[in-house]
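User: Batch of two.

Assistant: Item 1 of 2:
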Amino acid sequence: MDELLKPRALITGGSAGIGLELAKLLAAQGYDLLISGASGRVHQAAEDLRSYGGKVMAIQSDLSKSSGVDALVEAIMQSGDTLDVLVLNAGIAVGGAFLDLPLEKHLHLLDLNIMSTVRLCHSLLPQVIAAKGKVLMVSSLSATTPTPFESVYGPSKAFMTSFGHGLREELRDTGITVTLLHPGATATEFHARAGMDTTAFGDNSWKNDPALVARQGFDALMAGVTSLIGGDEATQAAGRDHLVNSEEEKARRHAEQARPGSRPQS
């Protein structure tokens, strides 16, 4: 007798942080997993996730390059013809004043945060539609505010949010769901990798637990919730404030935290 086919989920950026926590939740729910990551640690993450009892395929691929997206799509197509859950989580920020940074850093961010999202959706949504499955896009609370001193990051996430809402409407009769998760600041390597250690975001002590944010996103995905903010009550309150504060005020507040050298010295 053939082994009972399990549902499959792809998680980009699945080797650490919110992505890894989402992968754990999906594995515990009985999904076979495909996880992608740009570094070799994606293979160790896959090994750890196999302890949940399902199949886990690790795909090391740089999604900021079209060749990396193509390699991921090819691996998915060769490994099976179903994709029940698509989690688009891979993304980066770049900290510092816009003109102080090389143009190439900004373009690299756009290639990963925007272009890979568009490419992967165009290639993989047909599989999700065929399965009447689910999509989770991990955007950011920064999608709702200007983000001075990481000036390209917020707009890239605003694109993802708008793109996701638009796709949902186009696909409303297909039977799939599209959920937008907007995490607030989360205690991961994210800001350190963005070069923001000297900013207020360099201190992880006040940030949200990635396991909490992932649980909120996972529950919303399973329930078909369209959009949510991920984080504690302070993060939820910040999201509400973003709905009523002016763009100028939001920019000023973000700059206070993101400006290099703004981290209090202990």
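Item 2 of 2:
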Amino acid sequence: MPTRTVLILQHVEVEKPGLILDALDGSGLDVEVRNLIDLPDASAADLPPVSDLAGLVVMGGPMNADDLAAHPALKLERDLLAEALRCGTPTLGVCLGAQLLARAQDLAVRSGAELGRESEIGWSPLREVDRDDPVVGPLADAPAVLHWHGDRIVPGADTRVLARTDTTECQAFRIGQAAWGLQFHLEVTPALLDDWLAEPSFAAEATDALGPQAMDKLKADARAAAPALRPLAERSLTHLRGLFEARANG
């Protein structure tokens, strides 16, 4: 029987699980948060077998999903995601995590420059949401979600795309019945966004994309969206928590 452990992989300290972690509170599941990105000698031996996990969550980060030379741990993460798909471990990838999940399925991830598109940073609604999907469907009614990415997943002919925006054709996708990739940041609360914007690299990226009023606009939009978004996000994450619990309970 799988353990009660949900493994969450981070890439930078500030990109925390936020609402994902909140959704697991009180579940009785054991949550282990790890950062492998600065460990060049990281190996599968450092982690529990994916088949023994109740769930796997891979968070975002500024690195490119194919930059394996600078960040060799990304190859390990891609292998972990591929193994999670093979053994049916419920899985969520967020932003970079979604891109790594896509690469584990041999989908391409292209830079905005390659595609002739600017970075997508800011709060805006999802489009063409699959309302029947238990994780992404509730977000069809969200006033906005947070986007913060330059690279884009290029879906294949058989990719189950669940949402898009005007500049990103694959904002969310599902593989089977228990693995999701979200290009946007469902986990971010206004308080967590404040932490992001306190980081000079995040602040500079936002200003480059949105201009000198970027910080004020992002914070104001976060607080405007939060009252309607949070209960919808909690519905989405409750389904994922249920999958984790079901696996842990055998």
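The chain has a mean pLDDT of 94.
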